[in-house]
């Protein structure tokens, strides 16, 4: 089991951000974390990445407790990408992606042939090979997000944690990121946990889905079972329903909007 | 899809830039050796440098100019590296040694020392400057700077060490120390105030080989420590969570970089006083010169630190004639416009 946790509880001061969170991932699994804003998705990812210390429970990687691994040893096995990360001024795409190799080269070893090949592969598979020398600041939001994903996959970790990798991207880039997630899990056996807001995208891309409400897990299972459970409408407090599209496809979640548009347009 | 123009820029060779930085530094030092208030013929100076020459020329070049220049070069390197380190780890482009309270701590240390040492040495005397144990100033200044740095580190450490915490604690403690020093000077001044004022302005006046030798071990140790720290420094410029998930032991390397910066800054401040702006501006100059080649910023900053201090001191020596202008005044006057010009270039 590449990544697992049970009874995980994280508190910031008195506020409990995550309570009794459990997860057990199969190799190559893509897991979606969904839930309203502030439901503990980011906290769960940070705890899984060993960045916040849980008050209770433990995270294990391949059976080993995360807390016992050094930062570099952990980074070789697990890569984590926060929401909207910031890079130092003037840094180029390639310089960012090279940071992903730190887990392997450390403070002293020089960059070898394999390290350079991995950096090229990471740039290539995010479609950034032509952007290598561009400053991150010159890039569009979607390109920048891909550069960060490129740096994360240059770590060659078998576990990838992505915090809302598609937020703030237009639909074209969203699809590109989700395609990349799918390819990484299928072709390289990478185990992926990502938080995501679009429920239909989550159902389409993820093997299993965890639903959080106010820091507590309320669902852990297959996308089809989530659709049947009625929990989405209840947790997100929306009126909506899963609409069947075709007999072999997952149903599509549609919400009812309170205001129905009339033909009158504003001046 | 974006239709970007495919530009496969060839890897730029780093050697020409580094060589020209090195040559400039050597040029600045030579200029400072050959020019001075006392005019000595270039032939005479060459003679002195090759081990000959008259007694007077030898004493001016070997005992006055050279030690002063070497001390300045070393101090310049210290300020430049300290500024670069502090700007990187606090992720604040305006950081310099005063951010960690090093300058203020050193000032307070030197002030206290000058006030009390008189009574320790010679109770009941009216303080005469000549009686002051000036040879202790570098060590005392350095100790004051290090203590201030350590205190700020502990304050920030207790509340989860991070760029913003350290900066805020540094600014707060720094202003208190500065106020204490100024208060002591104002309330207790006497002949000692001359020594203190000269030191406060940042000066290379009358710096001897003893000063250069005091600094040299710290310079060597600091430069050696930079090599293993260089990749950690790249990562420390990221958000702590990002740096840690790239595999960096954040607290450890943040602390090491901070220790190195404080050690270099405090030793230099102890010897030459707080030379304003060098630690702030040289890293920006280095980034401008190296444009987009972060691996070269550090060597460029080292060379530029030496160049800036050497030239600024030369200007101070020549401009004031007999009453020379302290280098701290020169760097402050020239540094401010340079800083504004550099900041305008940054979009």
Can you describe what's shown?
The complex is a heterodimer of chains A (267) and B (347). Chain A has 267 residues and is an alpha/beta fold. Helices cover 34% and strands 25% of the residues of chain A. A 6-stranded mixed beta sheet of chain A has the order 6-7-8-3-9-10, sandwiched between helices. In chain A, strands 2-1-4-5 form a 4-stranded antiparallel beta sheet, covered by helices on one side. Chain A starts with a strand and ends in a 12-residue tail after the last strand. Chain B has one domain (56-345): Orthogonal Bundle (ABC transporter involved in vitamin B12 uptake, BtuC). In chain B, helix 1 (15-34) runs parallel beside helix 12, helix 3 (55-90) crosses helix 12 and helix 4 (102-121) crosses helix 10. At the A-B interface, helix 2, strand 6 and helix 4 of A face helix 8 and helix 9 of B.
CATH top level label of chain B = Mainly Alpha
* Amino-to-carboxy terminus distance of chain A: 59 Å
What portion of residues of chain B belong to β-strands?
under 5%
Q: Give the SSE string of chain B.
A: HHHHHHHHHHHHH
- Note poorly predicted spans of chain A: none
Structural class of chain A: alpha/beta
Short description:
The complex is a heterodimer of chains A (267) and B (347). Chain A is α/β, with parallel strands linked by helices and 267 residues long.
